[in-house]
Write a structure and sequence with these properties.
Elements: H1 2-69, H2 74-98, H3 107-113, H4 123-153, H5 157-183, H6 191-208, H7 213-249, H8 275-295, H9 304-360, H10 371-377, H11 389-397, H12 402-408
Helix pairs in contact: 1-2, 4-5, 4-7, 5-6, 6-9, 7-8, 8-9
Length: 409
Amino acid sequence: MSLSVDVDELEKDWTELSDEYRSLEAANQQYQELHERLEEMQEKCTKQIQHQRYRMRQISKNLKTYMTQEKLTPEDRDKVTQLEKSIMKRKAQIHEIEQGLPQQNSQYLKIILGDVNVSILNRNDKIRYKDEYEKFKLILNVIGLLLSFLNIVFNYRALELVFLFLLVWYYCTLTIRESILKVNGSRIKGWWRLHHFISTVCAGVLLVWPQGEPWQLFRSQFMYFNVYISLVQYMQFRYQKGVLYRLKALGERHNMDITIEGFHSWMWRGLKFLFPFLFVGYLFQFYNAWTLYRLTQHPDATWQIPVLSILFLILFVGNSFTTLMVILQKQTERTENRYRLMSLIASKRQKTTVRVNTKETRLPNPLCCFPAFRCALMVPLSFQQPTNEGAEAATAKGEPTAVESEKTK
């Protein structure tokens, strides 16, 4: 009897589970339909974005042609300026819309990962992935600092290989993560991405450099260089993190902006004190290139030495040039802003002078000196009294004017 009761309960549980499964099937069906609809909407948005960009290119092209061929009136210039501002605003709006749509992988990601969609559509997930990237850089930077310090203290080939392999893996991983961040809206660009690719090649060449006298002559210098660079990168990370947080809170930076090893325009506020440390690091790179160039004349020199000398020289030139361009750009912007402010102040002063001169040419209403009369009679400040030379002369002598004589009568 108890067995029968148990079976009945099991059948009842199975029936309930079957009902729940039918609910799961319905939810899954709805999910599949929504997913298909989502893909259709994503494709539709992508096509409309392409259409918007095509039309904006045509409008911009026609606008440039119009500006070169026609003599523009001030009203037309205002319309052209307004159109250019609207186009710039629309480009920014389209960029924001794109952040919620899947993006095409770069060629580098296609080679490394294949045709895999790495777009992160959820904004919180994007920020979380960026934060993980920052933590990854910080942790590996500290590990690299410790290993380079140990290599200064102990001269073991196995410890050297561990450190060099770590550099290769670190820069390879960094380039992949940065490419994924680039797909998802991060605005790291130009030299600072290329810098990591060159560093990957440099670390790979160092890894295959055979043990010998040239390596031993360069080894200590390279390890000291890594200690210094690791300390500077740690300083940059700590200070850039705070500046980025403040600028994002003010709405002046994008949420996907990341810390970098060099100097960017947004670091101008509060991070100028890093310039000496950065340029010392760049000079250290040049010194490495010069030392390796001299080692090419060593009897046991291998092909790795001239290659590394060229790579370190490229890093020195690229880092120095990019940082100097940022400094010149910010100085130019400051000069332009200063001149704009001066011209604005001058124009305001000129307008004030014109207003004062205009008021001096008018005879003020005596009743305007008294607030009660001004409020009661609603006499404007710019009210003009008719003047004549006889009245002014009579007033100067203390005699009654014609108007006062008329009022007395």
